[in-house]
Every structure is written in C-alpha cells, then in structure tokens.
Write a structure and sequence with these properties.
Nuclear Transport Factor 2, Chain: A, 131 residues, 4 helices, six-stranded mixed sheet, 6 strands, alpha+beta
Length: 131
Amino acid sequence: MTPEATVRELSRRFLAGDREGAMALLDPDIHIEQPGSLPHGGEHHGHAAFGAMGAAFAGHWDRTIDDPQVTGAGPDTAVQVTRQTWTSKATGRTATVAVVELLTVADGRITRIRVFPQDTHALLATFAPTP
C-alpha cells in the first residue's frame, strides 16, 4: 500500500469509529509531534502516549474533521490537509482551521506524524469567555 493509501485508510477507520483498526496502522513506536503551545502538544512516543494525547485533547475540545485531502510527498511520506472545527468543552466557543499533517510510513504502518494547525492562537482563544 502506498503512503497516501495508508493515510486514507487510517482516516477512514478513525472517522468510522474503528479505533482498534486505526491503531493497527500505527507503528508501536509511533512518534507524534503537536505544537507545544496546545494543551495536548509536545512529542508523544508509542501507542500509550498516542492514547494519552487523544484523552488530553478530548478533555478540552470536541472536533469535527471535514474532507481529508491526502497526497504523496515522496516514497515514504504523505501529506494530509483537513478543515477542522474545534469546540471548547469549557466555553462552547469554536474555531475552524486548516490542519496540515506530514505522515511517514514504513512497512505499511505510520511511524511519524507531524501536525501543523493553521492558527493555534484561534484554537486557544476558544477557551476565553465570550465578552
């Protein structure tokens, strides 16, 4: 399977609620990098850390992801661009941003994900009370 096909399948499984199937596409030593300014940010290694990162995210936001666009970017890399709406659980405020992800694939599993939200300031502003 090509890197872009692997990423499309990962997205399909997550969006279908097949978490176990999605996790099977992640290397056991998966390395994920999120912007450090976000509450779930930083570097995360392995399935357990992936789950902890997801739980930290879910403690702060609900999220919808629209229309993932995936393209190849070399023999082992795919780029995914999505439009995501994050809703603060504390305030109900929302922000919609583009998110670019660089995903590295080896032996049919994703080994690295680097996440680049378009505007982390807008995402963090969802925590501010409505004026």
